[in-house]
Design brief:
It is a single chain. By secondary structure, the chain is α/β, with parallel strands linked by helices. The protein contains six helices and six strands. The chain is globular.
């Protein structure tokens, strides 16, 4: 689960409640989530203690502002798992973005079609994925 779109409030602070809701959902379904977070997000709004075990903070790579996307994709490839994010990764799939090698493009054009999961939150803050976790 990527932390990029999960929940934001004013004053540029990241609200971790959306991440908690997603983690809870997947843990209740027997899945161990691995969440990817931008370094800047973790600097502005540090990862809460209760989420530290499942949130990985991306390193800063000068001149590569979307490196969190690449790490998220590579984790999904490595573990052959769902990629839960509202980003469609078109720029990585179609445009040959920097560092998008053949493995990344091939995965996004093939297996990702079944493993990419968009999501939303209902009015009570519950995490609602487009498709459920694997059985």
């Amino acid at each position: 689960a990527s932390g990029r779109d999960m929940s934001k409030f004013g004053n540029n602070k990241f609200d971790w409640q959306g991440v908690r809701a997603a983690v809870k959902f997947y843990e209740e379904h027997g899945v161990t989530p691995q969440c990817v977070c931008k370094s800047r997000t973790a600097t502005i709004s540090p990862v809460p203690k209760d989420l530290k075990a499942c949130v990985m903070v991306c390193p800063i790579v000068d001149g590569k502002p979307d490196v969190d996307d690449l790490f998220t994709i590579r984790l999904a490839i490595k573990y052959n798992c769902q990629l839960v994010d509202n980003d469609n990764y078109r720029d990585w799939r179609d445009e040959g973005k920097y560092l998008a090698d053949d493995a990344v493009r091939s995965w996004l054009q093939g297996p990702a079609k079944e493993l990419k999961v968009s999501y939303m939150f209902d009015t009570s803050g519950n995490f609602i994925p487009m498709i459920g976790p694997p059985q």
